[in-house]
Write a structure and sequence with these properties.
Helix content: over 70%
Number of strands: 0
Keywords: Signal
Radius of gyration: 19 Å
Signal peptide: 1-18
Order of helices and strands: HHHHH
Largest sheet: none
């Protein structure tokens, strides 16, 4: 009986349109992160820059997207952490697309 009840609750949580478990602001931020992360991943797919680094960069950029100067500092710090080859790849790919 308890298994059936738990299964019902799980079904409702997954398939019901429950506004109580969603937050519009969080959903918007998450959507922006996914968009930026996927775009950067696609852009750098043939580079030597690790995908995890790209996702972390996207997270930091979205977390601070209301402060353009801070985003620029994040990009500068990211660039400093790259090898010379990666800096060239990043510059060639990213700055040509922005």
């Amino acid at each position: 009986m308890s298994f059936t009840f738990a299964a019902l609750l799980a079904f409702l949580a997954l398939h019901a349109d429950c506004d109580e478990i969603r937050h519009p602001t969080s959903d918007k931020i998450f959507e922006k992160y996914i968009d930026l992360s996927m775009n950067l991943t696609i852009l750098f797919k043939d580079s030597s820059i690790e995908e995890a680094e790209i996702h972390e960069l996207a997270k930091k950029m979205i977390s601070n997207d209301n402060d353009e100067e801070k985003v620029q500092r994040i990009l500068d710090k990211f660039m400093e952490s790259l090898s010379e080859k990666q800096k060239k790849e990043f510059g060639d790919l990213y700055f040509d697309k922005v």
